[in-house]
TrEMBL record:
Membrane topology annotation: Multi-pass membrane protein
Protein name (record): SulP family inorganic anion transporter
Keyword flag NADP: no
Record lineage: Bacteria, Pseudomonadati, Pseudomonadota, Betaproteobacteria, Burkholderiales
InterPro entries: SLC26A/SulP_dom (IPR011547), SLC26A/SulP_fam (IPR001902), STAS_dom (IPR002645), STAS_dom_sf (IPR036513)
PANTHER family: SULFATE TRANSPORTER
Species whose genome carries this gene: Herminiimonas contaminans
Domain STAS span(s) in chain numbering: 450-556
Length: 560
């Protein structure tokens, strides 16, 4: 195998050789991200309904695999809020959170999602992620942000059954034992306020690390757990248990497949956004198919590590860049921080309040809100705005099966796309003062020549648009019996299929029956090749085909 082939299968061999200066910068950035990642990983594990230790598992091996086989040097791969919420939503109807069955299902979900992404990348199908259009992303992310924040409210205020129990019983229990809610709320809202203040006054300071240390220390000092308030508790120490997942019923496999497909598309869209920002700021290229391979392998590694699906984190990627990282080595230093915490520091998180974890989730998620995007969509396209709103509503209503919001959005996007392309722009054109063919109605132009109808279609000529073109021309000719020549300007047609060819053949026959001659101008090469192979060029005749619109204008005026 040649060196080229080796680097194709092992892209990390293309990394530039590090220097002492670059390693120093990467070490500082990696440690900064790693210290933030540790409490975030635990927080996102709870959001996914998983044991706290699995968050650290998901932050270790998957982050290394993702950067080794990915294409974006500074993308931080690991637990992410949106992906964790999708995991929770996908598994909620199937098992109880944090149970053995739940963990097993999450592992299988991670493996399936990873396989889907890997196959998409291996077969160079990265552009399929574009099925999740911007309106769908806007609708889903805003709905997901609301759901995530609402899901953390019970832990934030110390009322775990806030949305599931009878409100009267909840109020009575709070009245009978107010200390739990008061203590939990004090830690939760105190953390929120402290994080906001730090972000405003000291944006470069790792506020997440500070509140984690401070919250854990104060919890131990005041006896937080003794009041009955929830803490993280024991976290399994040591390396993740690399093993194949336990068997589950075939019905569960089938339920996971659809969830895995949606999760694969959404999580890669999330990672892709980070890659684009990083590439723009660093002025470097990235390969979406190679990134899919890296993300897929990272998810599979997370499942085999006993954890849940991971994704690219925008906030940690931004921190990585902000802290001065120069290469992918920074991620390896972050992974060392996670490894060190798993082996030596897991016990230190024992007293960390769950309300602090809730706050650690809420603050970054709050940045996902962008309701102004809906207003912008209305200004650009009412159809796209409708897609975003439907996605938003269905995601909220379908809770916990959040993926139905994405499915509804993608379906509506396809329907809207097909409808728009079934209504192509077909206009009568005439010569403008600048010598080009323009819209006769818009510029109030007379006909190109007496008895001549010049028509332009601004779309591909295919099974969606063919009948509309034929209907337009036949209608115009039927309403004006003076028309004896039809000029079809196809310079805007970039593609034609069998239905499009059949449309032109049928149109030619129909016009001949009416005593009208058909002409064509400015045919693009790819369209010409199809028409030539179909025999239409020969049937129409060289004297009825013009290479340019200008040539057609002169010829039509001679015919008049």
């Amino acid at each position: 195998m040649s060196a080229f082939d080796i680097k194709r299968f092992f892209p990390f061999l293309n990394w530039p050789r590090p220097t002492m200066a670059s390693l120093k910068s990467d070490a500082w950035a990696g440690i900064s991200v790693g210290l933030v990642l540790i409490p975030q990983a635990v927080a996102y594990a709870t959001l996914a309904g998983m044991p706290a230790a699995t968050g650290l598992y998901a932050a270790l091996l998957p982050s290394v695999i993702g950067i080794l086989w990915g294409s974006s040097a500074l993308l931080a791969v690991g637990p992410a809020a949106l992906t964790s919420l999708l995991v929770f939503g996908s598994l909620s109807p199937m098992a109880a959170p944090a149970s053995m069955q739940w963990v097993t299902l999450a592992i299988w979900l991670s493996i399936y999602t990873g396989v889907i992404q890997f196959m998409l990348g291996a077969f160079r199908l990265g552009r399929l992620s574009n099925l999740v259009s911007q309106p769908v992303i806007i609708g889903f992310i805003n709905a997901a942000a609301i759901i995530i924040m609402m899901s953390q409210l019970p832990a934030l205020i110390g009322v775990p059954d806030l949305f599931v129990a009878d409100i009267g019983k909840v109020i009575q229990r709070v009245i009978d034992a107010p200390s739990i809610m008061l203590m939990t709320s004090a830690f939760g809202f105190g953390t929120l306020i402290l994080l906001v203040v730090i972000k405003r006054l000291f944006p470069r300071f790792p506020g997440i690390l500070l509140v984690t240390i401070l919250g854990t220390f104060l919890s131990w000092l005041v006896g937080y757990a003794a009041t009955g308030a929830a803490i993280v508790g024991d976290i399994d120490k040591g390396l993740p248990p690399l093993a194949l997942p336990a068997a589950i019923p075939f019905e569960h496999h089938r339920e996971l497949w659809s969830a895995a497909l949606v999760l694969a598309l959404i999580s890669f869209t999330e990672a892709m956004s980070s890659c684009r920002v990083l590439a723009r700021k660093r002025r470097e290229r990235w390969d979406e198919n190679q990134e899919l391979i890296g993300q897929g392998l990272a998810k599979a590694a997370s499942g085999l590590s006993g954890a849940f699906p991971v994704s690219g984190s925008f906030s940690r990627s931004a921190l990585n860049l902000y802290a001065g990282a120069t290469s992918a080595w920074s991620t390896l230093f972050s992974a060392l921080c996670v490894l060190f915490s798993l082996i030596f520091l897991a016990d230190l998180l024992y007293y960390l309040p769950r309300s602090v974890l809730a706050a650690l989730i809420i603050i970054p998620v709050f940045g996902l809100f962008d309701f102004s995007a809906f207003k912008r969509l209305f200004a650009i396209s009412r159809d796209d705005a409708a897609i975003a709103i439907v996605t938003f509503v269905v995601t909220i209503v379908a809770m916990p099966r959040l993926h139905w919001g994405v499915v509804a959005g993608i379906t509506l996007t396809m329907v809207s796309y097909l409808y728009r392309h079934m209504q192509p722009r077909i206009i009568e054109v005439s010569e403008h003062g600048d010598g080009t063919l323009r819209d006769s109605q818009r510029f109030d132009l007379p006909r190109l020549a007496p008895g001549v109808l010049a028509v332009r279609i601004d779309a591909a000529l295919n099974f969606l648009t063919g009948s509309a073109l034929e209907r337009f021309i036949v209608t115009q000719c039927g309403s004006d019996h003076d028309i004896r020549h039809v000029l079809l300007c196809v310079g805007a047609v970039n593609d034609i299929d069998a239905t499009g060819v059949e449309t032109l053949e049928s149109l030619q026959i129909t016009l001949q029956g009416l005593g009208i001659e058909l002409y064509a101008s400015n045919i693009k090469k790819q369209v010409w090749d199809v028409l030539d192979h179909a025999g239409w060029i020969k049937a129409l005749g060289d004297d009825h085909i013009f290479m340019t619109d200008h040539e057609a204008i002169l010829a039509m005026r001679k015919l008049a």
